[in-house]
Amino acid sequence: MQIHYRWESGSGGLTLRDALVDTVQTRAVAERRLPYIREVLDLMDESLPEVDRALQRALDNWRLDRLSTLDRAILRLGATEILFMEEVPPKVSIQEGIRLAESYGGPESPRFVNGVLDALYKAEGAEERG
Asked: How confident is the model over 6-34, as pLDDT tens digits?
């Protein structure tokens, strides 16, 4: 989430990979977590338009660009896991999103993140079934 925030808040052409390098240089990141972080960021970078379209469909009366940077980061991370990482159970992605929203978002963020990611999960499950 911190890497996404740095990327989105950065000025002038900063890529997600650049934001990762900057973050690793300035913050303590456990070495064992880096492969997973790289995988999520690579998937998000490759698929951001698809992730954003799926999130926009799951948002009810909201626009993705009008959300806080932190809420958008949390939703994009959860959506990337739900859409592209079969090894991560969707319920785990949703719970992790809620946990991040509780720690870093506003008072309504946990409930909002839960609702959006759950709607995305249900919609994606319906697409796969039908």
From this structure: 888 876 677 888 888 888 888 888 889 88
Residue position matching structure tokens 């900063």: 14
Which of 9-18, 77-86, 112-121 has the least mean pLDDT?
Answer: 9-18
Please check whether residue 82 lies inside any domain of the structure: yes
pTM to 2 decimal places: 0.88
Please check whether residue 5 lies inside any domain of the structure.
no
Amino acid at 97: G
To 10 degrees, what angle do helices 109-129 and 69-84 make?
Answer: 30
**CATH number of the structural domain spanning residue 51:** 1.10.940.10
Residue 50 belongs to what domain range? 38-129
Pick the closest to residue 27 from 5, 42, 43 (CA basis).
5
